[in-house]
Hints:
Elements: H1 2-24, E1 29-31, E2 34-36, H2 40-54, H3 94-100, H4 120-123, H5 128-133, H6 195-208, H7 214-224, H8 232-236, H9 239-250, H10 257-269, H11 277-288, H12 295-308, H13 313-324, H14 332-345, H15 353-363, H16 369-381, H17 388-400, H18 407-420, H19 425-438, H20 444-456, H21 462-472, H22 481-493, H23 501-514, H24 523-535, H25 541-547, H26 550-557, H27 565-578, H28 589-605, H29 611-624, E3 631-633, E4 643-648, H30 657-665, H31 681-684, H32 692-698, H33 725-731, H34 739-746, E5 763-769, H35 784-796, E6 799-803, H36 805-811, H37 816-828
Parallel strand pairs: 5-6
Antiparallel strand pairs: 1-2, 3-4, 4-5
Amino acid sequence: MLWGMLYWRLTALGRLRLAVASQKKWNVEVSSGQLRSSHSDREQQQQQQQQQQEHGQEPSYQIPQTTCLLEYRVPYSPSAYPIARPGRTPPTAPAELEEDLAIPTSPPPGARQLCNPYSVSSSRRLSSVKNTLLDLTFSRPAVAHRPHKEGDGYTPREDHDFNSKEDPRAFQRERSEYSVLCHDLSEPQFPPLSAEEASLLLHRVTVLRGGLQPDAIVDFLSALGRLPPPLRPPVRGDSRFAMLCRYAVESLPRMCPTQLLALLRAFVCLELPPGHSMLALYEAELCRRGGMLNRTQLLLAGDLWRCLGRSAPLYLDVTLTQLEQSWQELSVAELVQLLYLVGEGRRAPAALLPRLELLLLQYLEELTAEELGAVSLGLFKSQSVLSQCTVRRLADIGLAQLPGMSNLALVNLLKLLRFSRLEHRGLLRALGQEVPRRAGALGPPALMHVALTCSTLRYRDERVLEAVAAAVLPLASRCRNKDAAKLLWAFCSLGYDPRNRTAFLGSLIQQLRVRTEELERYPQHLLTALLALAFAGEFPSDLVGLALSPRFVSLASNFHQLELKKDLFMLDGSVGLELPDWVGPRLPSQLCHEVTKVLWGIAQEDMCQRPEVLEAEALLQELLGGPSFVRKHMILPHTRSIDLEVCLESSGRALPLNECSTLTALAPPNPRARTASSRGWEEQHTAVPLTEDLLAKLLNNLTLLPPSQPAELQPQHSTPCRASEENSRQICSGVILTEGLLDALTGRPSTALPLPPRPTGPRRLAVQVCSRNQYCSDTRFLMGLHAMKRRQLGQLGYCAVELHPWEWLPLLRRSRADKLAYLHSKLYSTLD
């Protein structure tokens, strides 16, 4: 027996020496964070690493190893693996390290196997429940690249600062209070940990194993967080790091809040993937302890989740619930940081938001320009609806601080104005000086947001739009599909053609062609771009064919985030009208019928019930002879608007719509004919008959109406002085003088082109009760959608008759006779 034991000890010692000699033959060298080995197995491993790098995966190992992680056939040997005893210090001497490096071999028959307390395989036999939660795959580099489903607590890192030249967290350097509320990503970790130190530290984890206490785990992970960026991926892929993470999870209930936050900070420094299954356990633990954390710890943990790129919605709910009880005690820095986290979490607290708005109004004067930008971005991302008064005050503060405001803060403020639909005149006018000065320093997303704000607020400023168009052109290759689509939408919806129109549109269209692989993930961007181009009369055949292809139509129709069927219908309807030779794919008739039914239902509930529309419909029926002469419907359903259709003979007699349809059915109008709707006002009204009635109206005298006029328009008294107050308003109302009318009356020379031959046969009129939203703010430029509708009505053979809001809405408060006279002049002027 004694000889047997001596034999096995000598055998183990011999194997130890052989293992040490074999280990020295590896000749491990560190070069640019990668292992180089002369051993054939390591060469194969290096080839695998290169293949992983080519596929965008993290290499498995790039630091020198002090343990040999070969496959253990029989991982137990009592002579080579001394049993750990309580109170034993970890081995640090070289001899002890060599002892731990011994490779176990198979014992002779009959030898009893003892559990190896230091082997990697033994660490996988922890709690089966914990291992299930941790997926047993900590060391897989593919964890960072696996797809995540919506609702699993994972949110990809935001791309709002894509190509941005400024730090979106710059506001956290405005006050010293942020140092305890936020994690400074730019803070250098001194002194950095070397590869050898990291390997030794991981080896100590295998030695201590179950003896690791929470403070030691925190110290180890915090030390690993000081690794330089090139050495972090191999550490995350090391099995010993997975072992350390498992021990940390087991010790979670014994850790204090400070230790939990230190672990999260270490994970941020190690750039742990946001989809790591272990992080869900930490979130659950922090949610459980939400009532034990103070405001500083709550906000710091939320910021660490943000730095990890994980949304942590459950933890955010706990934070908002806790802060709701002490919202009045929040300082300026705490309020700004909270709104920042609310925005990054994309959720607005319904109960807490009104209180935060009151607190925000209290601290408005204390906010710096960068904090104002962070608040605006948080409110915008969380879709928080504030009162117009609060948003206007934020814009006032921003206007006062505009010269010293960073580009990022200015863009964030514009995002809030766009979401709130607040037309702040002072700030918008200031953009005329600021945007040309800053455009060269803005990236494509920032330029897109500036143009999109102008479009949403219907603000058409040539200085702003020209500066954006000039700055976008050299940056077109850096535009995402989102940037290109929304830039096209902004310019085309405003109906503005920049000086470099051909190059501007061509570069953005080309960028859409280059990034077609993104369209399956974001189909709305292609439809946005094509609809914008349709406003401008541009139809790139390849992209239109792609958008109307059965595969893309199926993809867009089933897109759960947005309703895209209406956009497909608008594009298809525009193609059918403006591309008569189109032979590409079209939408199925069933889908078109379905969308038309939905749009008409919406129109009946909204547009058809507006007072100005109902009044125009009733008066037109009275003027023309009854309901059969006026039809309220959607002539062009894909434009999502209604019209009052009227049919007049060339003599001026109104025709019932069924008779008009019968007369024109055999001779459809030429879609390419130039109609009155496509000509300017001066072209339509260069010859105005100067009658006594018109002179009387202009001179505010008694109106002498011909017998053909309605009886309601004839005066009831012979002189104005004897008329009643109502009739006096009718007599002295006058007509609206426009430049075209004055030109015709005074004989002023006109540069208008000669009128085309007068059309014969009945005229189909589309009477449109316009709203101010159809025009650019404070101008008479039609927005892109409505300009396209006018163009397509002309191609269909209709003459558009516009009841301008600045003319029709004031008339609603006047007499019926004035309104009838206005409608009469609008209708019959199309026959002149």
